[in-house]
Every structure is written in structure tokens, then in C-alpha cells.
Recover the amino acids of this structure.
């Protein structure tokens, strides 16, 4: 993402978004943070990764949106062995609830100066 | 949204998501909060509104995802006169940067007990 604004400089649509909404429980904050950062580092190395945006408020509700070139890239990352372990840990230890939506971005606009330019 | 978990109990796909990512500046927190809540109240009365999820972290980066039955519902809400005023206020006063993506949700899964049931 753009470190100044937290907004991912994605290319022109179409591309895919994975919207991951979750509610954290209160356990094991440190272990969670380490694994969450590791998943960002690992996932962003996958072919077809375009960017990621994330926010979590004081109520424990968080939204992470990762952007991908196509469905094949999303599935390859979902099946990464280390990611699979993290998904199970999230389900069993860290999330009171979560929901994942896979969506095709059809149009985009905004104030972002880099809109339409995939800045690496 | 589900008040216990912050996750919107959306119906089975397909439906639409509007992903609004923003970076707040530091001005006028109170005025912003009042208008932001008003927009949630007003938008959720529009035909085709399915739900909303929102999170903003301590770095000022926020993600709000609203869910809609179709593109026509999204456009009707975008053109609401009070919403148009709020959009301008956001651009000029409250956001250092923002980006909007309109995406068609193709599949969804998660731990949400209400998944696939549109709870009103």
C-alpha cells in the first residue's frame, strides 16, 4: 500500500478483491500480530498480488482487503501451506467471527494521484 | 451489521460491494462523526441496501464496505442530495486521500452463523 495513506495503488479495473471482515477475540495479541504481518509479507510475494489495505478499530472489528489479478492468484495464495495453518489458527484462536467475500472490481475512482498506475 | 460482530449478514451472492478506503486528516473530528453516522442511517434506508461494515485504525486509515443488491441501488444512493454534500465535505475537509472501488461479490464464506440468511 501507499505508506503515506494506506491506500493500495491498484491498476485499472477489472481485478479482484478479497474482503476479509473479522472480529478479534481478546486472546494472544502478540502471536496474532506476528502471524498477521508474516501473512502480508508472504502473500505479497505471490504472483498476481496487487496490493492490500487494512484497518481495525477499537471495537475489535477489522477489514482487510487484498487485491489480485485474477481468481487463480487468489486460490494459489489460499492454498499456501503456511497460510493454511494461519487460517486454522485464526478460526480456532483469534477470531470470534469472520467472513470472506471474493469480488470482481468493475470500476474505481478517487483522489489517489496514483490511480490507474500500478506503483511498485 | 450484526451488532455483536460487526459483520453484515448479507444474502447469497451475487450482490455488489462498494469498498471505500480513506485516510482521515486531523480536522473536525466531531463534525465528521456526526455526518458519518447520518450517512449510515440515510443510506441504509435506500432500496437495495444490504448491509455495511466499517473499521478505522489509530493511523487514520479506514475501510467502509457497503453492500448493495445491484448497481442501480449504488447509483441512486450516490446521487442522494444530502450524500452529495457529504461527499464534497469529505473531499475538501476530512480526507487526506480516499479511493472507491465498486465490485461484484461472486462468492462468500465464513464462520458467520447467519451466512446466506439476510437477517433484518
Amino acid at each position: 500500500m501507499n505508506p503515506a495513506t494506506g491506500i493500495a495503488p491498484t491498476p485499472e479495473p477489472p481485478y479482484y478483491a478479497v474482503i476479509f471482515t473479522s472480529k478479534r477475540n481478546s486472546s494472544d495479541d502478540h502471536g496474532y500480530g506476528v502471524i498477521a504481518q508474516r501473512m502480508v509479507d508472504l502473500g505479497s510475494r505471490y504472483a498476481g498480488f496487487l496490493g492490500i489495505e487494512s484497518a481495525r478499530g477499537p471495537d475489535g472489528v477489522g477489514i482487510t482487503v487484498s487485491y489480485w489479478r485474477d481468481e487463480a492468484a487468489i486460490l494459489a495464495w489460499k492454498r499456501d501451506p503456511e497460510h493454511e495453518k494461519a487460517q486454522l489458527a485464526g478460526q480456532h484462536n483469534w477470531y470470534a467471527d469472520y467472513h470472506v467475500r471474493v469480488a470482481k472490481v468493475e470500476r474505481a475512482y478517487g483522489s489517489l494521484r496514483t490511480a490507474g498506475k500500478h506503483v511498485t
